[in-house]
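Please check what follows.
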Amino acid sequence: MRRPKIAVEVAPESAGRSLLDLVRAVAELARDEAAALIERGGVWLDARRCLDAALPVAAGQALAIHFAPTDGRPAVIHPADILYEDAALLVLNKRPGDYVNVTPWDVTGDVLWAAGRYLAARDGEAPPLHLAHQLDRDTSGVLVISKHPRANAPLLRAFLDHTVHKCYLALAAGAPEDDSFEVLTGHGRGERGRFRVYPLELVGARSPDGKHTVKPMETRFHVIERWPEAALVEARPITGRTHQIRLHLAHAGHPVAGDTRYDGPTTVAGVPLAHHLLHAAVMELPHPFGRGPLRLEAPLPALWQDVLAALRRQEVA
């Protein structure tokens, strides 16, 4: 859970007050709480993050205050999380619950920040790091980070040219009828800005907010194991849209277990789900410095293993 964002315009009578004082008053926070919020990067003026607590505000400025989730924790990198590393790349087995990049409420605590801290502590300094792609907060698995500026362009080109091949594992609610199936739809934002599925014939049309265009979205699925309550599914995204696999499984009537945004169940085989069960299991990509193709595999997190073991026990009983 997260306290809702506060967005107000600075009133004329507040002109000249320090940002710290204004945030304290508007958000009804203690001084140290407001100072920590600003220091973490949760306060914005005129759509720009502001870290200067002493800055005098001006009348008419747009103030936005973003609050961190109550269940948030800083990402930490351990040696066991590293799947592959060389001068160009750092590949991690991302843990569920970690944000991969800065958020509106925090400039620290994300995976990229944690990777920099880890490398600096190990090597004395951290190279310039750049995310090659994104993973949702609760999605675990293969995450590729560039360690060298010359690697950025080849990595971007590989993703754009579809020479990167990704395979995810998802635990889908219920049991799909077919062993293999494909979902092809439109993808865009809905009326409240959330991502949603659109009919294929609306691809190219404007979304309801008028700011975005509906784009094609395609995923291929294959069922690996079945139980009455759920199915272990291999998902291969052909396109790379936000929430693509989650949206497509929900659209097919089998939302990802634990994915409450898209009506996934919160327990499976009696096991409570602290996060959704979607895992970036395998990625194949060309090395950015031409050292041949890489195949990167990420082991499943503990919750995954607990749920699968519980499902298999039910099958035997």
Observations:
- The mean pLDDT is 95.
- The domain at 167-281+301-316 is CATH 3.30.2350.10 (Pseudouridine synthase).
- Residues 302-316 form the longest helix (15 residues).
- The CA atoms of residues 16 and 57 lie 5 Å apart.
